[in-house]
Amino acid sequence: xxxxxxxxxxxxxxxxxxxxxxxxxxxxxxxxxxxxxxxxxxxxxxxxxxxxxxxxxxxxxxxxxxxxxxxxxxxxxxxxxxxxxxxxxxxxxxxxxxxxxxxxxxxxxxxxxxxxxxxxxxxxxxxxxxxxxxxxxxxxxxxxxxxxxxxxxxxxxxxxxxxxxxxxxxxxxxx
Length: 175
Prior knowledge:
two-stranded antiparallel sheet; 2 strands; 46% helix; 7 helices; mainly alpha; flat
């Protein structure tokens, strides 16, 4: 139950809800983007904040923390919009590369690149392996499995296990 009254008057009507309206209340709240964070006033401080944000975004993308990366990229966009166009060109290039990397996170090419890293990388100068001659010969040349070792006659000492010989059981065996 959630108390809905904001009044300090004890005689006011209090509406108790079971939480069914939480979805509509949460709809008014938005996910925060980095654009809402304060931007420094002076240009050198803006550039330094942009560099730090680029570092954070790069680290977040490399560690696949996508929410953190989205936040950092939106903060970086707000910082670059606050700067003039001819300032921090190198940072803008880095930022565009990071945006491309972030945008390609769920594409099939990114998944193929992820799978390709597990296999050893081939060099351009490597020669192709020679084709195999015939499959019939290779099947005949496969080694045979090792023979099973003969362990000899193994007997269980029944007397040591408490199954001593009794006249009744021995007599029933011979019959």
